[in-house]
Protein: HTH araC/xylS-type domain-containing protein
Amino acid sequence: MLARHLAVSVRGLQRAFERIVGVGPKWVLQRQRVHRAAELLAVDPTQDLAALAEGVGYYDQAHFTRDFVTATGTTPGAYARRCAASLAALGPGRVADGGGPVRTGRALGGAARGTAART
Structure:
């Protein structure tokens, strides 16, 4: 454990993190999970939301949905529907890869189910 290695308490490490970064580690981890989920939904908006929630580190879909709405202002289902509409507008076989140019073919080597390399 990092706190033990640094010879500080866990709470002391959390306080130091918040003082230096400006937000707590819990907030950072929640945002990372939500952003990862949004990336995965953008690639495959048809995936099961409960499985997605588990895949990005949530124990239940309710907590995932609450954090997703807090971070994005929309539910995962509504976000997935917008992503599906955007993908449909791009045409068959074309995918958007998160802000870059549109590519042809499969995105992320089929990694839309939570198996992509961590970014």
